[in-house]
Structure formats: C-alpha cells, structure tokens
Amino acid sequence: MDEYYQRPKRQRRYAGYMKIIDIMVLMLTLAVSGLLLLAYLAGRINPNDFWWPALLGLAAPVLYMANTVLTLYWTVRWKVYLFIPLATILLGAGHITSFFRPQLSKHYDDRSGDASLTLMTYNVEGFLDWSGPRPRSNMPEVLGFVARTGPDIVCFQEFQTTPVITQREIDSLLAGLPYKRINFVLGQGPHGWGTAVYSRYPIVDGGTVPFGRSTNSSMWVDIVIRKDTIRIFNNHLQTTQINSADREFLDYQNFAADTLRQARIRSIVGKLRNNYRLRAAQADSVALQIAATPYPVIVCGDFNDTPMSYTYRTMRGELTDSFKEKGRGTLYTYRGLFSLLRIDYVFHSPRFTTLSYQTPSEAVWSDHTPVVTALKLDPK
Hints:
The chain is of the alpha+beta class. The protein folds into two domains: 2-91; 113-377, Endonuclease/exonuclease/phosphatase (Deoxyribonuclease I, Chain A, 4-Layer Sandwich). 38% of the residues lie in helices and 24% in strands. It has twelve helices and 14 strands. Strands 5-6-4-1-14-13 form a six-stranded mixed sheet. The longest helix is centred in the N-terminal third of the chain and has 31 residues, at 9-39.
C-alpha cells in the first residue's frame, strides 16, 4: 500500500483507471464466455422446446471473435483471466472447423478424371437483380456462369420461371444438363417458384418432402451415374423473413436514429423465433427421409441456418460436411450481415469423398454464393 502512495500522482491515477477497466473487461469476459458456452448447446436443443439458444448459435462467429479479442487483451495485461476465454474457445474446438478451416499448406484440386462428380448448389434469388429501382432478370448471367463452371448436377433454390424468364430459355442455356426435375410450390401452369435439379446423368425417380403451407420446399431425385444410383436432396428450408429494412437496421446504418428501435428489435426477434421453430420441424421431416434412403446420398441446399444450429445438426446426422473436408478459410455463402454466415451446404454419405470445395466469389448475381464440390463415389 505504501508503495502505491509513493508513486507519482499520474501513475496512481493511471493504475486506478486500469483497475476499473480490468474489472469491466472481466465482467464482459464472463458474459461473452458464458454466451458462447450456451451457443454450443444450440444444435442439441429443438427450438420448439426452447428457442432462444438458437439466437446464440446465430451469433457464434461474433462470440468466437469476441473471445479471441478478450484472450489477447488478458495476454497483453498478463492476467490469469486469459484462461477464461481461452478455455471457452478450446471447449468448442470441434465447432470451430464448421466456421473456419485454416489453409496451412498449398491446396490442390484432387479431381481425377471420370472418377469425380461435380455438384453445384445455388440459391439464385429468382434470377432477379434487385440493385436498381426495379428488379430485372439476370438469368442469362447466372446460367452463363453455371455453364462455364460445368457441373454435372445443379441444385437450384428460389428457382422461378415467368413470361420473361422462360423455361425454354433456361433449358437452352443449360443444354449440357439435359435431365431435369422441377418442384414448384407457387404458381400455375408453366410459371412458378420453387426448387429444381438439372443433371448431366439420367434422373430416374423423384419426389418431395411435404412442408405444409410453406413457400419453402425440399425435393429429392434418384440419378443413375454409370452403374450406381444416388439420391440427392435439394433443400430450401424456412427463410428468416428478415427483409431489406431489417438488414439495414442490423447493419447499424439506421440503428442509432431509429426511434422505434425497440419495436423493430422485438419484430426481428419474433421473426427469428417463429422461423427457427418452422425450420426445425422441416429438418426433422427431411432427416427421416434421408435416413430411409437405400442409396448413397447427397444433401444440399439453402438451410437458412448456421453450423451451430439444430437444423444443421439434424440435417447432417451421420453425413459428412464437404466444407469440413476440403473448405479453406471462412467461405461464407450469404452476402448479408457482414458476410459472416455459412448457410448453404453439401453433405454426403460415407461412400463419397470430397475432392474439392469452392464458393466462387465472382458469382455476384444473388444474395447467396454458389457452393461447388467435386465428389468421388467410392466402389462398394
């Protein structure tokens, strides 16, 4: 104590300030570490039973970064408190590779001739460009990119045909993929909205997984590739219904000035809660169909949920996430919310091996990026 008062007044004031700051940061550390620990449970809790951990699963990338920053802070301060956020991160080490896979060495594309199958999953946002005062069709650009990429199979979500975006023109631009199956959940006659699968190989069977009164959908197709039959599930699970005004609000552009911010926050949280519950029920339904599949299976599409969610864990089951095999970096698939979210996936059964995984950044025509994977079907 005497040593403290023997210091110059300026040093005593600085030491006092730092003590107060350390106490505040310690409280923040305990709170952020606790929230991340709860986020680890999000995938194991059905939102229909207890919904709010799902919000923490959504915030997991931010919570990881916050714990990393706090670990660095306490390291610089040379305080034992650094073990609080560090231990929290290490406890969830298995989850980290669902969000981020460091590239520790040079990456090579492992594809080997006819042994590989290239699959693309792409939410094309209705083939519409919303950047101008009026939406316009960007279908030629999107399908031109698909044709240049040259996948063997493409699974589309938010696929639509209209008097302007015609089925004939789509088929013409995808002439290299002559087999198709389309599942419209909205529309009449030749025009509609839903999901679609285009394939270089014959589609011999298909069906849907009922979602009730929903504009989202899940479909499956059986495809014969050489001597094997595989089943692909193409999924567009319940959307968050977060609109452009909500996204602008969440991006802090109008946050401080919005006099109705509490009502807006309640509205956004209410949308998330309701749609977490709907999505969980949809994931349960699809998972039952996946488990009953007699063939090697690929499950792909826009799940509208993060890797730390009940939806992800239920849909994946015992399947392999291609990102965890060959992804490099963060490779987000949704361009909104600071490009932090991976919500589009390709899972596969053990008979497949992921040879490569990409999310091409040049595909800028949708709010989602496509996921392109090369897979090898191992012999029985």
